[in-house]
Design goal:
By secondary structure, the protein is an alpha/beta fold. It has 2 domains: 164 residues, P-loop containing nucleotide triphosphate hydrolases (Rossmann fold), CATH 3.40.50; 68 residues, Conserved Hypothetical Protein Ylqf, Chain: A, domain 2 (Orthogonal Bundle). It contains 10 helices and 6 strands. The protein has a 6-stranded mixed sheet, with helices on both faces. Strand 1, helix 2 and strand 2 form a beta-alpha-beta unit. The protein is elongated. It starts with 8 loop residues before the first helix and ends in a 14-residue tail after the last helix. Magnesium ion (MG) binds next to helix 5. The site of magnesium ion has 4 residues, from helix 5.
Length: 283
Amino acid sequence: MSQIQWYPGHMTKAKRTIQEAVAVVDLVIVVLDARIPFTSYNPDFRQILGKKPQLMVLNKADMANPAETKKWLAYYKSKGFGAVAMNAQQKQGVKELLKTAANMAEPVLAALEAKGRNRRPVRAMVVGSPNTGKSTLINALMPKATSKTGNKPGVTRGKQWVRVNDKIDLLDTPGILWPKFENANIAFALAVTGAISNEVYSSLEVVLQLIGRLNKFSPNPWETRYKIDCAEKSAEQIIQAIGLARGMLAQGGTVVEEEVAAVVLAEFRNGKLGRFTLDEVPK
Ligand SMILES: Nc1nc2c(ncn2[C@@H]2O[C@H](COP(=O)(O)OP(=O)(O)OP(=O)(O)O)[C@@H](O)[C@H]2O)c(=O)[nH]1
Ligand SMILES: [Mg+2]
């Protein structure tokens, strides 16, 4: 997994777009995946966004552990960022997001007014890793849906400004990753949540790691959803047991591991395995 080392050309272009737009926006809305509130923050943003106010949106909060989401919100606030939790798909958290964005932009707009200029709508750029829900979030704010969304990374390509209402304009940007992941855990977390295109990794390898990670939680989904007795079973044995339980067998009765992996991955991604936060809040 640590060998996932690539950086597609369209991300280089998107990074440049973001770099150029930083200068003209009042704040940046960073859309994170609430299941990986740290790992889904592109480390390049620290440099690209500089001192621009950042509003961390922990999106897909419906699939994360609510107590952990609270801790992550407190953590980001303690570091001086804006922070809100959201379920963009269900339009939950919209009001708080708009209110927080307005508050964060207020000093800039008030300064304009003090110079005798007219107030203008807040300008915010929406950035994040692929598939974290940036376009869905923008659509959730709009009276009518306009941004194209999709459950695979890389749906948004060009840049597009949209006027949400007379108080705020948003710039949607394509999801970007960074050229070199620091370790295999990062590649795993991005792959399992769908930020990395599934053409570049093996689902089976990702699911074997997922089993290892979720085994640490109690209850774990292998027991609750698939009714597997996990005691002293290795990840490979759990895959075998799920395949047998679900009848994912080839002729001759051998378990089709790739099929099990695809099902488990899909079920994790749509929240059927339960609500899990994979990143731990730093002490
Ligand atoms: N469960 C859940 N799913 C969400 C939420 N927000 C977005 N999604 C889903 O996540 C997938 C990706 O959403 P997009 O809005 O296309 O993501 P994006 O960040 O714009 O992706 P790129 O443009 O590819 O970078 C879609 O299937 C959405 O329906 C959420 O809050 N909860
Ligand atoms: Mg998009």
